[in-house]
Structure formats: structure tokens, C-alpha cells
Amino acid sequence: ADARRLWAAWARGALYYFKTAVVLAVAAIPEGLPAVVTTCLALGTQRLARRKALVRHLPAVETLGCTSVICSDKTGTLTTGRMTVVRVFVGGQELDTSTEVSASLDRDLKQTLAEGTVINSSFKSDVELDSFGKVVKYSGNDTECAMLVLASKLLGLSVGYKGLRTEYPANDPDRCGISFSSDRKRMSTFVRRRGGDGFRLHCKGAAEMVLKLCDKVMTADGPEPLSPAALNALNDRIGAFADQGLRTLAVAIRDWDVFNRPEAVDESLETGLTLVGLLGLEDPVRPEVPDAIRVCTAAGIVVRMVTGDNPRTAQAIARKCGILGDGDGPECVMTGDVFRERVTDGDEILQDEFDKIWPRLRVLARSSPLDKLTLVTGIQASKISTPQTVAVTGDGTNDAPALHRADVGFAMGIAGTQVAQNAADIIVMDDNFASIVNAVKWGRCVYDNICKFLQFQLTVNLTACFVAVIGASILAQSPLNVIQLLWVNMIMDSFASLALATEDPNADLLRRRPYPRDQPVLSPAMTRFLLCHAAWQMLILFVFIFLFGDICPDSDLTSLCSPGTVIVEGWGDIRSGRPPAFDSQFLPKTLEDCPPVFDPRNNRTYYSPGGNKSLKIPLRPADFCSEAHHSEEMPTQHYTMVFTIFVLLQLFNQINARKIHGEFKVWTGILDNKYFLWILGMEALLQVFMVQFPGLNTAMGCTGLTMTQWVFCFFVGATSLPLNLVVSQLPLSWFTYNLARAGGPAGGDAASDGDRGKKREGDGIKLLSMVDQ
Prior knowledge:
The protein is α/β, with parallel strands linked by helices. Strand 3 and strand 4 (93-96) form a beta hairpin.
């Protein structure tokens, strides 16, 4: 019988230690972190979708928070994408299309210009006008739609451009086309002239490209040779249009008589052209873009405009947007051909030469999709500064390689092709640059929310592990039982992740520099938070475990010692919940650590308080030695208070964890997050429920507490809040580890950047400086 009882005791002990080891592993290993990160990213994805940003790749949400460079298209992103022909230079005169342009031109000139804009356009481009000639809707290419509106004004609303399309149908056997390309920057259409008296090639494209192919210019009196003086005047006119931020296109023609039809229609026909006129198209800057660019500058994000426009046009638009400032010189603007010549050698990027250019480059004009890919690749590969995180916008099929290569690719939801959208990480549903900046703000919010949860979970992990391990080592059993540790783990992984992941972004997110992409997640400020709060929690818990509780040999009460039975008086008017084997070492020296079973004849087995020999109190129950280390003790108020204080310390510390940069105003914005308040309140109510509700508290290893004990536990747990004020004032240098791997500002910081290069005070993390960009 004794052997069976010993084997049963051993089995119970082995099972107890096994359960404790498993729970310690669960508490020590943040196994819920991947799920929490996924939850944060998923919540961020849902919120971005409500703000016109559809996330296709989940990790892109976090990467947004590190974005330091945005390479943006101009048309439709920085501008409205609603092209309008506002200036026309035809027949030696410049006209404003807002007036009655039709009455100012010769009939033949109007007809030729209208034919050049309508015939030489895609049939997919269409315009819906109301009865007053105002645009209702553009369909297809915006540039061609703007030219179709001009043609309708030239021909009269009663006729419009659709009459010309009827005369020159797409299925005409004599119709041939030379398509547009980013290299040629022009397109041409070859048709049989009206009446069948010959053939005509209509050409339109970038003004400087088409003008090189012209040797005559159309006037009211007919074609005239293009003299050097006239050519200079036209170039000046193109420059004037560009300085006004207008995209300048040229329309030209070439005729053949009926007997000299060319055998093949190819690029060789685009010579000896006659210039019909110059068109100045305006694409207004979106009203919200200048403010968005200013926000990017304050956030340490450099916006670079990549466009196919004339350099002077691109420069004018960039200044309207705020991409170029008054102090930016000519080195900030470069054309695609010069860029390629300087930084590439065949298919290779000359990184040393590239590094001389990109820090100051703000506008890349007359660029091709390959130039955009080269720019993104070169910035990512640069070693002269902290590694950059590059975001790119694109809408065309040719933009797909750059979108795929970028750290974050933004495709346009309205103007973007399916290929571009498939290659992108995020689709901007309204094609608006302000939506991109808003997405970056939410990306930073998601990144910070993950950091908030991480510092909170590591604090709980560290405290729980130390308390459980040290408690088990000294007391032979953990002060926190298996169910209690699982409940704490649920607070860490489930409730805290939901509470902290639902924090909304605030204005401060876009007032600091982005994190470098190789920056350690655990910053010195977070390390300070983790170590100080964990140390404070362990100090409180160990004091309460080892110094609180009266020692008495036995009692009919589980929470209090029977009157007159206290052998060693501890702090607090409660009975010790520590194992008897541990408390026995504090008994009088005349008693052994494991005295024999109670025998009234042996004064070494009982205690007589006050020397009253008639009162003999047994020093231990009968099974003390065999079960003191392994038995499940009855719940005590002592250990219930230890458990409650531990949980309340975490709940109050959850409020502190809302800030990760050393801020001491942890209450700021807390009322704006109703989810956080609901979850925090639910955690507190569940804790009360598990301690006070009969039956459930027994399963949790707890017993009910008095109101006084609850108030005491509440105020002890609330010490986390004032402690955080003290912790936030400790020097970060005490907690700084080597960040050399994270990179640092390059040598030779631009003095002109001034305060913009300073890192944010209080967080102790190395942030990107403006010289790096």
C-alpha cells in the first residue's frame, strides 16, 4: 500500500511538472506573434480598402511604413488626368481655345488641323459632350480625347469629330498606321484623301520630335519652307508653352498624289513633313497634391516625378506640385536619354555614376518605362546611405517590370492596365496621389501597432517566465498554476493583439522620418520599456509571494490562520499560500524542517502558543512530507492576489504599450479607440468573474477576494502608469545596442537640409535623413 501511494505521488508530481513545463514553453515562446502580425496586416488591409487602396499582397502593408522614396507618374496621379487643349499655335497666330477659336482660323487650316487630330487617333478614344459643348465624359486616352474636343470646336458641334470618323473609317483598305512608342514619341496614320485625289500621312507627337521631321510649315496662304528663323520661333513657342506647364504636341502632314502611293507604310515616310500647328494641353494639378507633397517632405519621404513630358513642362508641373523648390537647381531635372547615357552601359547600371545623380534627382523627363526600372533598381542597390524603400506608381503595361521590382508597387485602378495591376502590390482605386500618401500613413500605423504588441508581449513573457521558473525553483511549485498561465497567455496573444492592432493613425506618424528597412524591430525605447516594466512587475510579485502571508502549521481556514496559531507573521492579514515545505524553514529553530507526524507525547511535533501546554497545535498534516511538493494545494487568497496583481499589472501596462517612442502621455487618443476600451474592460470583467464566481474560481485555482483586497490589487496594478512616467525619462544610452548593421547617415550631409535631417527625439532609433535621399 505504501509503495502504491509513493508511485501515485510520483506520478502526480511528474504530471504536474510536465504541465508546468508545457505552459512555460507556451508562455515563453511568442507562438502567437505570426498570427498577430497577420491579424494586424489583415485589419490594415480592410481599412486601406475603405480608403481607395486595394492591397493585393499582404506584406506590402508593413513595407509601406518604411517607404522613403516614391517614384510617381505625373498624368492622372499628380494631375487630374483630364487633358484639355488650352493654347493653339496655327497659321502664325497663337489662340486661346476658351474663346471662339473656330472664327479666328482659315477654313482649310481648321479642316486640316481637325483631320490631323481625329484621323490620327484611336477609335477607342471617345468623348461625350452636352448640348453646350461641355465635356461630360472621357473614354480612352485622355490626350486624344482632349484633341477630339478641339476638333469638335473647329468643325462645329453640329458636325463634330464623329463625321470625320465616318468619312475615314477604321476598316478603310487604304488606311495604315505607324503606332506610338515611348522611343518614337509620335504616331502616324496613312489614308486616302477625301475625293480620292491622293494620299496623306497624318503625324502627331511630342513637339520637338515632330518638328525635327518638318521642312515646311502651313500658313493661311499654304505651305511655306521652314526657315531657320521660323524654326527658332517655333522652338521658343514650344518653350513658352512648357514654361506654363503645358504638354506641347505638334500636328503635321505629308501628301502624295494618286500616282505615287508609297509601296510600304513605315517610319521612312515620316520625313519632309509640313507642320500644321502646335497644341498646348493642360493637365491641372490635383488640388490636394501640393499638400500631400508637403506631408511627404515632413515625413522624410522624397517624391520623384517620372514623366514622358518635355523637361520644361515637367519642371513647371513639379514646381506647382511642390516637388521642386526655389533652391533646386538644374541637377534636379534630367531627361531620359541623358540619364541612360550616364548611368547605364548596355544592360548594366554604373552604380558609382548612379550614386552621384540620384540623391539630388527629383524630375526625370522624357523618360521610358526602362528608365523608371533603372531608377528603382539603382536606388535599391545604392550603398552610399541607409538602404532605401522605394514605392513606384504605374498604369501602363510597360510599367509592370518597375512595379514588380519596387518594394511597393502602386497600380492605378482607373487608368491602369490589367498587366500593371497584376504586377502591383496595391491598386489605387481613384488614381490619386493623396490616396498613396494616406496608404503610407496607414502602413506606418500597422508597423507601429505590431511593435506595440511586441513590446507588450515580451514584457509579459519575461515576467511570467521569471516568476514561474524562480518560483518553481525556490518553492518547488510555480506560484501561477497551469490554467492561470494559459489565461495570461490568452491576454497576451488574443485580446492584446486585437486591442493594440485597432489603434488608428495619428498626425504624428507623418511628422517623423521612416524607419530604415533593415532597422531592428526592437528599438532602444522599446528595450527600455520591456526591461524596466518587467523588472518592476517581478519586484512586486516576488515581494508579494515571499514577504506576504502569515505562517501557521495548519488551519481549518484556507485564507486565514486560525486565531492564535500564527507562528511567523508576514505582511498582510492573510495566510501564506506558499508550500508548507518552504514555510517550515521559518519555524522555530527547535523544530526540524520535516517534523514527524503529530504525537501529543512528543513536543517536537506540535506547537504551544504562549507556552500554554494544554494547547497542542500539530506542525503539519499527516501526508506533509510526501505531498508537499506535488499536491494541488487548496486555493488561497494569497496566491489569488498574486495572480490578480499579475493580471492587473498587464492590463495597465497594456495602456502604456500604446506608445512605442518613449511618450509619457499614454492616454492621448485612448477615447478614440472604442475597441481598445471594450477589450480592456472585457479583460478586467473576466478576471473578476474567474476569481469571484464559485466553481470557476476553483478550476482557476483561485478563491474569492474581499472588496478591500480588490482595491489593494487595483492600486498595485495601477503602479504601472506612474512607473511609465519615470521610465520614459531614463537615458536611452543605457539601453542602446549596436545599430551599425542598420546603416547610418552618409558622410557629407547637406547642410541646407538643416533640421530636416534630425532624428525624432525620444525613440532612440536611427531614422532616414534627407541626405540619404
